[in-house]
Amino acid sequence: MKVKIDTDKCIMAGECYYNHPELFRMGRDGFPTVLTDDIGDDKGLLKHANEAIEVCPATAISLED
Ligand code: SF4
């Protein structure tokens, strides 16, 4: 599974990198960068990615195969 951020939707609210610094960090342009975009079948990271998806106010985060 891969974590994707749609920068057209992202409003740089920061919840993803504040809550899940193991997956995201703020890039120089203010948009989040995915640190581990291919999380494979790691259940812990998958749980965190799904939490980030739930709290993102712009529905900008998604998981893809
Ligand atoms: S939580 Fe969503 S809107 Fe906020 S910075 Fe992350 S991707 Fe962008």
Describe the structure.
This protein is an alpha+beta fold and 65 residues long. It has one domain (2-64): Alpha-Beta Plaits, CATH 3.30.70. It is built from two helices and four strands, in the order βαββαβ. The strands form two sheets. It has a two-stranded antiparallel sheet. Strands 2-3 form a two-stranded antiparallel ribbon. The mean pLDDT is 95. The structure holds iron/sulfur cluster. Iron/sulfur cluster is lined by residues 5, 10-16, 32, 56-58, 60-61.
Top-tier CATH class: Alpha Beta
Give the bound compounds. Answer: iron/sulfur cluster
Q: Any idea what the radius of gyration is?
A: 10 Å
Q: In the residues, how many domains can be counted?
A: 1
CATH topology: Alpha-Beta Plaits
Average residue pLDDT: 95
Question: Which parts are unreliable, with pLDDT below 50 for 5 consecutive residues or more?
Answer: none
Main β sheet profile: 2 strands, antiparallel
User: In percent, how helical is the residue content?
Assistant: 25-40%
CATH architecture: 2-Layer Sandwich
Strand content is 15-25%
Shape: globular
- In DSSP terms (H or I, runs of 4 or more residues), the helix count works out at 2
The assigned structural class equals alpha+beta
**Strand order in the sheet with the most strands:** 1-4
Question: What is the terminal separation in angstroms?
Answer: 5 Å
Please give the number of β-strands.
Answer: 4
Helix-strand topology string: EHEEHE
